[in-house]
Amino acid sequence: MKGTNLGEFEELVLLTIAALMSEAYSVAICDELEKRAGRSAKLGVVHAVLNRLEEKDLVKSRLGEATSTRGGKRKRYYTLTNTGKASLLKAKEVRDGLWSLIPNMSLKNI
Amino acid sequence: MRMDKKETHPPRWAEKFLSWYCKPGLLEDLQGDLHEYFQRNLKAQGATRARLIYIIDVFKFLRLYTIRKPEFINFLINWIMLGSYIKTSGRSIMRNKLFSAINIVGLSVSMAVGLLMIGIISDISSYDKFHEKHDRIYRITSVYQWLENKDNQGNASNSMMVGKAVQENFPEVERAAVLHTGYSGDFQVGETTVTLNGLWSNESVFDVFSFTLLQGNMAAALRQPFSVVLTETAARKLFGDGNAMGKTITLNKDRQYTVTGIMKDVPTFSHMKFDVLGSLNTREILQVDDREWKWDNVWSTYVYVLMQKDADMEAFQQKLTAYARQNDNLIPNVKVYLGFQPLTDILIGEDLNNQLGATFGKITFWIFLAITTIILLSAAFNYTNLSIARALRRSREVGVRKIIGAVKGHIIGQFAVESVIISLLALIFAFGLFVLLKPHLLSLQSDLHELLVLDVSPALIGYFIVFAITIGLLAGLFPALFFSKINAVKVLKDVSSVQVFRKITMRKLLIVLQYSISIIFITSMLIMHKQYKHFLAFNFGFTIDNIVNISLQGNKADPIIAELRALPEVQNVSMSRLITSTGNYWGVYMKTDKDLADSTMVWHNLVDENYLPLHDFALLAGKNFTAKPDSAKETEVIVNQQILKRFNIASQIPSDAVGETVTLDNNNVTIIGVVKDFTYGKADNNNSNEVVFRYGRKDAEYINVKFVTNDWPATREKIEAIWKKHDAIHPMHAKLYKDQINEGFDGLRASVKLATFMAVMAICISSLGLLGMVVFTTETRLREVSIRKVLGASEGKLIFLLGRGFVVLLAIATFISLPLTYLFFEKVMLVKLSNHTSIEAFEMFAGVIGILILAAILIGSQTFKIARTNPADVLKNE
After folding, report:
1. Are the Cβ atoms of B32 and A44 closer than 8 angstroms?
2. DSSP label at B281?
């Protein structure tokens, strides 16, 4: 099992899902990522990541109501599972811990 | 909003593709996302770009995790259900006996043609494959040009010079086999004489080709002059079971040849056939022909080259051309172009003159293939049509299946199995027809018998079964797809909601097409048959009845004639050089004294004094020849009226022409008689009727016997007994004059046969097509008819109502096909045939009327059935 280790992009997607709350579906996630991270997120890539996250049991999904904008197709909304939340928190902890080790000046020099 | 949607939609095929490959679980999601993006791009970048991006995205999503896994369970179910499919198909076939019979008959008739085609293809493709190096063997071909007149067809043969040159000057040629025609005749060993056909050949023949030498040395067998290699059969004929090697054989009572090898018989599937091979270098010693090595003598030598592995054939062609151009000046005004042809292409390759053995014309082959394909497609389409026409009956069954849990795949499986079963049943009948038709096909033309065997081998049976399954799947494809799409709920609620009537124009067109083809074939058959009968009964201007022509085959005529005359049945015996009116021509140059211009070619025959009376030629003036010794100088000639006309002799008055002098072959002769015009060539050829008779007992090759008998076979036996006394070696070649003339029209007879066959088939197929259509229409209109009936329509009116549409279709077909056929024969075909009879109303309309009556019965029977149904039965379900 790959366990709870997250890739960089996976982490971003998970965070976006958490941030979007109940509006997290593929296209919205793409848009949000583009806005926040300032880099283009391809739909295909995001889909693949969502698929993988779901396989890892970090997110779960449900189908919404049909809307006319999508040619009558329903949206698939994603929410974090507890494991997902835990792995995000763990990732944050790891980073925070590392950050705390860095003295202030060493970064200022850059 | 709605407008928007209508105008710009993502490309349908891309959508379909997506839903085809995508996992059902992911599909909706992906479709939605892509659609959303599409709408966005539409606003931002316009329709074209949006579509393009959509398509690209569809392909981008083609990833491992999106692809639908093959549904193994479906596979399993289909496999388990196979038994059930077969069972239900069997039931359905039995329940609708009429339909099944129609389908099976229709398919089997056309499949029989397909089987013949497969047999032919399988035979043809095995030609010359037994040569181990067949992929490296090529034949050098030539095209002859005199002044600016380049022959439009090349020759399979070549000049002797080419044979020598390719061996010496072309390093890419490994070996070259050079063959020359004419090593044939009477081969004699002691008391045994056998007539054999063979070829002169150089020693490389066994290196290039894979003919198996049973005895003798491959490399040396044909190296020495006066060597001969015999096939097993030839050796057995000449030497019995004794050893032949090293023995000598006398050819045509002239030279002796030593047997240096015995080879296996030439395989059936070899384009060249021979009994013996003589060493080619013998000809250098014999010096038969001083033109032997001439550059323009491209008529009797065949050059086959075995190329080095990976030889550059394009470069080889260039070198051949360069070599040919070097020789342009050897013979004034003559150019010869060289080319090559792969060995395995010879049988159905380019149509060449002067082939070494029979070949299958490329054009003939493609025409046959095209006709077969049309017939098969037409029949398969009929099956499709008929199956869908029965949709109303079957759709409820499909509905129930679907409700129980069948998915699309299962329904497709069931219908596919059903059509395959039908086509396999049809295969049984088709095979019967194949066996029945095979001898007829092979006897269509004399060549075919030599070329094709059509042996039923296990491999061929395998091809047949694969073919039948393919046809079954092809024919069943559309019905299967159609039924698999039926909406179960709708069907069970209301059967008539099934939309079967969509492509109606297409089907009408098909009917018109099928009937036009039928009418064309049957009318052509009748017209050609009439021509054939007409030519057989043709009056040539002399008698051909009760005359038998015997080929002398080099024997002395007088002793035979003397004995023949002694037979009580024989009335008269004459001699001639040619048998005229069967397509034999022999020219001689003639001019008159007054005519200072060049001499003109006229046709002639050399005859004795009995020839004209025996054949009842009408002498208009003068007298017949009188008997003369063989040594006498030629002084007399008998001409026909056309000659008088052509040379304007004595103002074309026969009696005045007698006594005039003309020059024949630079020899002055006197006209002693004038006969009435007659047909010298063939009954269908009027171009060459200027004929002179010359006296020439010594040049005779035939004796003509006139007899009176009620028992021809017995008379023939008596004649044969006489023949055997004089020539024990050659079998007698005696034919009734009438039969010989009939043989001249074998081609026409073959066409009539072929057209008859085609007509029967086309009528079968089109009738089935029509029947399908009629059933189709009447069943969909069942309710309408019932209501009309309730309201008071009579049965007659209903039949009229239902049949009207079809009558119109048939009328259209008739109006298209009849004038076409008429024009084709009147302007194209019959123009080439002199002395043809005119096309009359009977031939034009008999076929059409027959077809129309058949169609009327078909339409009538179905519409009558519908018109007779009790409206209460139909309407009570409403």
Report:
1. no
2. T
Residues on chain B touching A69 (C-beta within 8 angstroms): 36, 39
- CB contact A74 to B (< 8 Å): yes
Q: Give CA–CA dist B661/B134, Å, rounded.
A: 62
- What's the whole-model pTM score? 0.68
- The DSSP-derived string for B603-614 is EEEEE-TTHHHH
Tell me the CA distances in angstroms from B103 to B165, B398, B516, B620, B773, one per residue in order: 62, 21, 21, 66, 14
ipTM of this model? 0.85
- Residues whose CB is less than 8 angstroms from the CB of residue B61 and which lie 6 or more positions away in sequence, other chains included: A44, A47, B18, B22, B30, B34
- Closest of B475, B507, B519, B505 to residue B377, by C-alpha: B475
Strand ranges for B608-660 from DSSP E = 619-622, 636-640
Q: What's the rounded Cα separation, in Å, for the pair B748 and B725? A: 38
pLDDT in tens, B664-687: 887 888 999 999 888 887 777 666
Rounding to the nearest 10 degrees, give the CA dihedral for residues B841, B843, B847, B850.
Answer: 60
What 8-state DSSP symbol labels residue B632? S
Q: Which of B545, B580, B791, B588 is nearest to B678 (CA)?
A: B580
| Predicted confidence (pLDDT) at residue A1 exceeds the cutoff of 50 | no
Helix (H, G, I), strand (E, B) or coil at B585: coil
Residues 6+ apart with CB under 8 A from A5: A87
Query: Which residues are within 8 A (CB) of B734 and not within 5 positions of it... i.e. 6 or more apart?
Result: B548, B549, B550, B551, B716, B719, B720, B723
Name the fold adopted by A8-102. Answer: Arc Repressor Mutant, subunit A (1.10.10)
Is the CB of residue B690 less than 8 Å from the CB of residue B603? yes
Partner residue opposite B32 with nearest CB, options A42, A44, A73: A73
| Residue B553 φ/ψ, nearest 5 degrees | 50, 40
The residue to which tokens 């049988």 are assigned: B347
Read off the pLDDT of residues B632-642 as tens digits, 9 standing for 90 and up. 888 889 998 88
Residues of B in contact with A73 (CB under 8 A): 28-29, 31-32, 35
